[in-house]
UniProtKB/TrEMBL annotation:
Identification of the protein by name: DUF445 family protein
Species per Swiss-Prot/TrEMBL record: Nocardioides immobilis
Keyword set includes S-adenosyl-L-methionine: no
The keyword Cytoplasm is assigned to this record: no
UniProt keyword list: Membrane, Transmembrane, Transmembrane helix
């Protein structure tokens, strides 16, 4: 024990290094300085992760051509591949990628399109379509008949017109049920969740930011706090090294290491290890993984309310890349309604207006009804009610995910870009070392200890 005390006494006095001894003010200040820099590194790192949502910067002539030959990692910096200098948050810049990963690693495991559709209770959707569609039916029949055969329609007695409309209305529930059943049978071909999610995330990068912040805000706040703790602890050996050798470039160099390690430790603490492990006798698990059930509820709410909604399913079915097939399927299901509405008069009607004209009337009615049939999907109140069912499904399946798959849901999209955060930490760490030198060695501030 005496030998150890003698060693520290000789070190503090400078006998071991041939210096004038330890500058205790500078020594004590270093951990607090590195702790503050660590806090700033993680705080600004989170800003870089999420902000700005849209790219801000300017175009540099010739940069786009240069970008093709620079190291691949630098090509990943937002804006560089397009010849622009500026910044966009890493998460919103990778919005489409996160959408793809969310489908491949999470949503695809939660259920097929058919399962999602079944969860929405097609019978209830059919009943809602009928309730919304039925009041408009007389106008649709009148509009189609006036367009295709106005003289015949005007000459028909009112009771006959009412009879035609009544027959069509009588067919409506059965026809709509056929349509919702057909959608269910072919939903795997009509609905592509991957395209739907990627497209929505790409158009709404702020939603991706919200996913991260709402699901993991507690862990993100802790990451900033741990920036100070890690920076302070790492600052102790830095102070010892600095006061042992008194070489001016050591502080900036060690600052690079401290900045890099501070960010890396913060990310590790949140996401690793995915499964509980004992390290030095202490049970360890990523902070994010410890409350998987709670996070699953938040994540499910966002997906059900904003991504896979009945409104968006309806939009995709009608206006997505397979919308033509949906429209044709609905029209095919609607055509028999005209035949059944004509009933025993069908043959006479074909003779009076002509077979071709009759078929045109039937086709026009079917096509007019297509858009109106899917309109109830876009009813926000009804969609909100149905989204609760999707939320229950997603939450249940997300809670059942293995921890490693669960953490990939959040981290995979940004993992290959984490080096930017670490590099940012290293640069700030070096800058912190230079600032400390300026204050304590070069006397940048008059009256401050040189």
């Amino acid at each position: 024990m005496d030998a150890v005390l003698q060693f520290f006494e000789d070190w503090a006095s400078g006998k071991l290094t041939g210096t004038h001894g330890v500058d205790w003010f500078a020594f004590i200040s270093i951990p607090f300085f590195t702790g503050t820099i660590g806090w700033l590194i993680n705080w600004s790192g989170l800003w870089m992760l999420f902000s700005p949502v849209r790219f801000y910067g300017f175009k540099v002539p010739g940069l786009r051509e240069v970008a093709t030959v620079i190291p691949r990692k630098l090509q990943e910096v937002p804006g560089i591949p397009f010849g622009r200098v500026g910044w966009q948050g890493i998460v919103p810049a990778r919005a489409a990628k996160m959408g793809s990963i969310a489908v491949d690693k999470v949503i695809a495991k939660l259920g097929t399109p058919a399962e999602f559709y079944a969860q929405l209770e097609p019978d209830e959707i059919a009943a809602h379509i009928v309730s919304v569609f039925e009041p408009d039916l007389p106008d649709i029949v009148d509009q189609v008949m006036m367009s295709e055969h106005p003289k015949l329609w005007r000459d028909l007695p009112a009771p006959v017109k009412a009879g035609v409309i009544a027959r069509v209305q009588a067919q409506l529930p059965g026809v709509v049920t056929t349509i919702t059943d057909e959608i269910g049978v072919h939903i795997d071909q009509l609905l592509d969740p991957k395209i739907m999610v990627i497209d929505h995330f790409r158009k709404n990068p702020d939603l991706v930011v919200r996913v991260f912040k709402d699901v993991g805000q507690r862990e993100l706040n802790m990451m900033v706090l741990f920036g100070f703790i890690f920076g302070f602890l790492l600052g102790i050996p830095v102070a010892i090294v600095d006061q042992t050798w008194h070489i001016w470039w050591l502080l900036p160099l060690l600052g690079v290491i401290v900045g890099w390690v501070t960010n890396a430790l913060g990310m590790w603490l949140i996401f690793e290890p995915p499964e509980p492990k004992r390290i030095l006798g202490i049970k360890m698990q990523g902070l994010f993984l410890r409350r998987q059930d709670e996070c699953a509820e938040v994540y499910a709410g966002i997906i059900a309310d904003d991504v896979i909604t009945l409104e968006r399913i309806g939009d995709f079915l009608m206006d997505g890349p397979r919308g033509d097939r949906t429209r044709q399927m609905i029209a095919t299901a609607m055509r028999p309604a005209i035949d059944k509405a004509a009933g025993p008069l069908r043959g006479a009607a074909r003779v009076v207006v002509g077979a071709e004209k009759f078929d045109n009337i039937r086709e026009s009615f079917a096509m007019e009804a297509v858009g109106r049939t899917i309109t109830p999907f876009r009813d926000p109140v009804f969609s909100k009610r149905q989204s609760e069912k999707i939320k229950v499904l997603i939450a249940r399946r997300t809670k059942e995910l293995p921890p490693r798959d669960f953490v990939e849901m959040m981290r995979s999209a940004i993992k290959e870009d984490e080096w930017m955060l670490y590099a940012h930490g290293a640069i700030m760490g070096a800058a912190g070392g230079i600032i400390h030198l300026g204050l304590f060695n070069w006397g940048w501030i008059p009256g401050f200890p040189p």
